[in-house]
């Protein structure tokens, strides 16, 4: 048993974590609470009002610096997605699937798997815009109702792809940083959990959907007027050129995957490769599409992408700033205030917990799942995963291992709930593109996601 001395800083940090969880349960925004927590911790630690005020800004700078690669990759991919839609190339990317989708069974799985793959590269929101309008009439014609399309896109994109995030690696970086472990550890630990969650959730959702279609609760009749509803003028009129460029883009990203596998690129290196490729594609397609106006158009698309990126992560920065203080960021922001024997606030709390609480893997894993789900109630999915990373570190310290599995479990729970499958205001993009009620979509997702989380938690317990 290792002795650890807890100071007022430790207790204040713990109190603010509890307050944050309560606020999330009440569906309140937690940014102000996190900023207040930074100020209070800074003031108690430094005994200086002006240093505490400075600490608020410096902690935000620290968090922004840590998250900037993630923000930029989302921004450039969104900018690239914009030009692909305007040029009509996105139509050609999904065109081969038109001849494959013959019935609603195939439609559900093809749309879902395609959404998952594209979401790994583009993230779900841009992917929704890229493929939703094209696949919807195809699916309806095959007998899959709009709500079925929405469920498939939601679960595979905002569920499986976003919670695993293997290509862009935004989610695992945030949780890994909070837990103090390499991104690769979180990714490796999440693979069996992601497979479990993905299979259980999508299969059960399809079972319930098929049951509703057979009983007549959901109609799958096709309206021919829907076929041309989402038609849009394409800036590249030549279909041959669009197809050539679509093939070129697919080849480029396939080469990226091969390089990442061959050179073992992960984390920032993998993000840089994808981001650089996206910028190259954006530039090339802009020159071909806009010609003489390419310089101005590229800038406009990049600005739109940056606006989207900072809008998504604006809520994450103050939250991450608070949770980064639980580890190495504290000394960088406020100086060497903690005792020399301290391993960081979170580590110290974990060691203290190990001394007084008889935790076990079942209690810890179940708690991480519940806390992760709670953090998702704000509808972001990302705003609270720093919290689950910190709690995973506490539990793993108490149990003497399992940090990567705990972190991955909390990440999956938080993003499945808040990233866009259970919170009504988070499912709006998919609901809007499919023309369904977001509350109805949430209701259809609820039972499969809960079943998936229960089974995934059991698997995590067995792994730990």
TrEMBL record:
The chain crosses the membrane at residues 6-25, 32-61, 67-85, 105-123, 186-209, 244-264, 270-290, 302-325, 384-409, 415-434, 446-463. Coiled coil: none annotated. The keyword Transmembrane helix applies. The keyword Transmembrane helix applies. Keywords: Membrane, Transmembrane, Transmembrane helix. Signal peptide: none annotated. This is Transporter. It comes from Clostridium gallinarum.
């Amino acid at each position: 048993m290792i002795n650890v001395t807890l100071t007022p800083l430790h207790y204040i940090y713990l109190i603010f974590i509890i307050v944050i969880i309560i606020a999330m349960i009440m569906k309140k925004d937690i940014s102000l609470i996190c900023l207040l927590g930074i100020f209070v911790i800074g003031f108690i630690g430094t005994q200086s009002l002006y240093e505490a005020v400075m600490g608020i800004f410096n902690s935000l700078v620290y968090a922004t610096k840590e998250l900037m690669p993630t923000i930029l990759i989302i921004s450039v991919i969104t900018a690239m997605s914009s030009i692909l839609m305007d040029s009509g190339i996105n139509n050609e990317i999904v065109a081969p699937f038109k001849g494959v989708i013959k019935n609603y069974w195939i439609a559900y799985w093809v749309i879902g798997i395609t959404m998952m793959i594209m979401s790994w590269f583009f993230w779900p929101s841009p992917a929704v815009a890229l493929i939703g309008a094209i696949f919807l009439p195809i699916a309806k014609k095959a007998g899959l109702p709009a709500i079925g399309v929405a469920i498939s896109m939601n679960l595979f994109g905002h569920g499986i792809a976003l919670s695993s995030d293997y290509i862009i690696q935004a989610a695992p970086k945030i949780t890994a940083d909070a837990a103090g472990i390499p991104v690769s550890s979180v990714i490796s630990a999440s693979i069996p959990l992601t497979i479990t969650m993905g299979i259980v959730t999508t299969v059960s959702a399809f079972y319930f959907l098929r049951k509703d279609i057979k009983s007549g609760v959901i109609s799958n009749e096709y309206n021919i007027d829907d076929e041309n509803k989402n038609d849009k003028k394409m800036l590249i009129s030549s279909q041959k050129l669009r197809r050539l460029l679509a093939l070129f883009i697919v080849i480029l990203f396939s080469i990226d995957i091969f390089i990442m596998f061959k050179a073992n690129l992960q984390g920032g290196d993998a993000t840089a490769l994808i981001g650089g490729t996206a910028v190259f594609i954006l530039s090339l397609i802009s020159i071909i599409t806009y010609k003489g106006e390419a310089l101005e158009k590229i800038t406009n698309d990049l600005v739109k992408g940056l606006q989207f990126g900072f809008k998504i992560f604006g809520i994450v920065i103050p939250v991450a700033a608070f949770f980064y203080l639980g580890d190495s960021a504290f000394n960088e922001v406020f100086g060497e205030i903690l005792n020399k024997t301290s391993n960081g606030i979170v580590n110290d709390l974990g060691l203290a917990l190990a001394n007084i609480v008889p935790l076990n893997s079942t209690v810890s894993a179940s708690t991480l799942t519940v806390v992760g789900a709670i953090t998702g109630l704000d509808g972001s999915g990302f705003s609270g995963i720093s919290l689950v990373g910190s709690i995973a570190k506490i539990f793993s310290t108490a149990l003497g291992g399992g940090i990567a599995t705990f972190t991955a479990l909390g990440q999956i729970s938080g993003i499945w709930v808040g990233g866009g499958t259970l919170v009504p205001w988070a499912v709006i993009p998919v609901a809007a593109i499919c023309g369904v009620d977001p509350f109805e979509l949430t209701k259809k997702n609820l039972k499969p996601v809960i079943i998936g989380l229960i089974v995934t938690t059991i698997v995590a317990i067995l792994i730990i």
